[in-house]
């Protein structure tokens, strides 16, 4: 017997947002900005959010945040993901170039 996904089951979303700080050469500015954005997102949406480096070489023009959140069902989780992405799109002094989220049921 296979499990089928129910739209009414609790669900979690984990994702990465990669930002491009065009013509930025200040690594400290990028890090301060990402930490501030993460703190604001945690306060606004009650999500887990942290700045991360995605490569061995620090690139002051690229920065990333990882975000995870839980919701009571798939629809409300997808809605929250959209709100969080829109929040970053409106607040960040950089543009989002990659947005990847995966979902998983909570059992």
Entry summary:
It is built from two helices and four strands. The chain has helices spanning 27-45, 74-91, and strands at residues 11-20, 48-52, 62-71, 95-105.
SSE topology:
Blueprint: E1 11-20, H1 27-45, E2 48-52, E3 62-71, H2 74-91, E4 95-105
Antiparallel strand pairs: 1-3, 1-4, 2-3
Written description of the protein model:
The chain has two helices and four strands. With 107 residues, the chain is α+β, with helices and mostly antiparallel strands. 19% of the residues are buried. It has a four-stranded antiparallel beta sheet with strand order 2-3-1-4, with helices on one face. 35% of the residues lie in helices and 34% in strands.
Radius of gyration using CA atoms only: 15 Å
Lateral arrangement of strands in the main beta sheet? 2-3-1-4
**Helix share, percent:** 25-40%
Q: What's the total count of β strands?
A: 4
Question: What is the residue-averaged pLDDT?
Answer: 89
Distance between the termini: 17 Å
The parts where pLDDT drops under 50 for at least 5 residues are: none
Features of this protein?
4 strands; elongated; single chain; alpha+beta; 107 residues
């Amino acid at each position: 017997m296979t499990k089928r996904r129910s739209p009414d089951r609790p669900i979690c979303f984990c994702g990465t947002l990669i930002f491009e700080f065009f013509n930025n050469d200040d690594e400290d500015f990028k890090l301060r900005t990402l930490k501030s954005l993460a703190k604001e997102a945690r306060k606004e949406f009650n999500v887990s959010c942290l700045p991360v480096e995605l490569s061995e070489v620090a690139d002051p023009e690229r920065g990333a945040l990882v975000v995870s959140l839980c919701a009571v069902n798939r629809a409300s989780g997808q809605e929250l993901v959209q709100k969080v992405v829109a929040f970053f799109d409106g607040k960040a002094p950089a543009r989002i170039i990659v947005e990847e989220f995966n979902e998983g049921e909570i059992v």
